[in-house]
């Protein structure tokens, strides 16, 4: 088995943050919360778990990081709906900042605009 061509039961998904590897029970255990909390943030559309062939919710590591941030806010007294909105806005801000940095880098590498 090599890093370039992984084989085995996970088919190379060990490093895939978006692979839905965790059941609801395992995800709740890892977050130190209840399955009800995961259902609540799903209903608030913070995360949308994928479903197994049997219809069971499956969560990725990326979704667990999002859920963990929401849980931090809820533990501080923020209502679930508000916590979900805050996490969504934080994620949008991070993406906007990333894009802005890319645009600035592209503009800087293209040199000054031609003189008129």
TrEMBL record:
It holds the Pfam family MerR_1. PROSITE patterns: HTH_MERR_2 (PS50937). Gene3D superfamilies: 1.10.1660.10. InterPro entries: DNA-bd_dom_put_sf (IPR009061), MerR-type_HTH_dom (IPR000551). Residues 21-89 form the HTH merR-type domain. This is MerR family transcriptional regulator.
């Amino acid at each position: 088995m090599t890093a370039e061509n992984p084989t085995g039961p996970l088919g190379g998904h060990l490093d895939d943050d978006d692979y839905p590897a965790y059941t609801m029970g395992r995800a709740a255990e890892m977050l130190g919360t209840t399955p009800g909390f995961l259902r609540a943030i799903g209903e608030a559309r913070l995360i949308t778990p994928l479903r197994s062939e049997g219809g069971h919710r499956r969560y990725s590591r990326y979704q667990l990081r999002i859920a963990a941030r929401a849980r931090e806010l809820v533990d501080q007294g923020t209502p679930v709906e508000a916590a979900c909105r805050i996490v969504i806005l934080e994620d949008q801000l991070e993406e906007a900042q990333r894009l802005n940095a890319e645009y600035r880098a592209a503009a800087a590498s293209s040199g000054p605009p031609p003189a008129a």
